[in-house]
From TrEMBL:
The lineage of its organism: Eukaryota, Metazoa, Ecdysozoa, Arthropoda, Hexapoda. PROSITE patterns: ZINC_FINGER_C2H2_1, ZINC_FINGER_C2H2_2. One of its GO terms (molecular function) is zinc ion binding. This is Longitudinals lacking protein-like isoform X13. Gene3D superfamilies: Classic Zinc Finger (3.30.160.60). The keyword Zinc-finger applies. It comes from Aphis craccivora (Cowpea aphid). Residues 42-69 form the C2H2-type domain. The keyword Zinc-finger applies. Keywords: Metal-binding, Zinc, Zinc-finger. It comes from the Eukaryota.
Length: 108
């Protein structure tokens, strides 16, 4: 039996061994797989950013490229260019304040 350093290695070996015993062929990942990937095709004309999807470039041009942050946190001076980033900030940093505010509005 092999000398396993961690449980992960033991699990991986057991998993591969089951596949080999079941008749599956296990091949190593291709080295050229990262080279064969399609490069990002949508590039911003104003800066050096590039995006894989058209909607990513659209969002960048509309909200980010050369623009000041336009969404401000209700609880601190933090400003964000994208509203979902601000929403995530408020959920992570100000959870207690938001919860208190929500409860006070429901019971008022």
């Amino acid at each position: 039996m092999k000398n396993f350093v961690s449980k992960h290695n033991l699990f991986t070996w057991t998993f591969v061994k089951r596949f080999l015993n079941a008749g599956f062929v296990v091949s190593p990942p291709s080295i050229t797989s990262s080279v064969d990937q399609k490069p990002s095709t949508y590039k911003c004309d104003n800066c050096t950013k590039s995006y894989r999807y058209k909607h990513g470039l659209w969002r960048h041009i509309r909200y980010e490229c050369g623009k000041e942050p336009q969404f401000q946190c209700l609880f601190c001076p933090k400003m964000c260019k994208i509203k979902t980033n601000l929403t995530q900030h408020m959920r992570l940093r100000h959870y207690q304040l938001m919860n208190t505010l929500y409860q006070s509005q429901n019971y008022a």
